Amino acid sequence: QVQLVESGGGLVQAGGSLRLSCAASKFTFSNYAMGWFRHPPGKEREFVAAINWSGRSTYYAESAKGRFTISRDNAKNTVYLQMNTLKPEDTAVYYCAAGSIFVYRDYFSATRYAYWGQGTQVTVSS
To answer: What are the C-alpha distances in Å from 11 to residues 57, 101, 123?
Structure first.
């Protein structure tokens, strides 16, 4: 059974940094694009960042550009989200997801991702 396990969430002050990790197992990780989504309290789930299977192409929401960096290590079956200069509005449950994605617009759509982790809470205090 496919597993995606996020870690690295927590409570941080505004302006601080966190690094989320997502460890994958039970599927061929290097064949899949990986994405990070978040679900802020009282709002809809939203796209944060994605990376193609090789790691050569990355995609970001406008809110993440310049502050967040997505990366992957196919040897370790892990995808990362480095989050810097965090803001209170970044508070959310963060999810990693895996999908067989090769079309540009599909990277941004949650419905294109087949596998999801259980989420990790990120809370940014002001």
So the answer is: 30, 32, 5
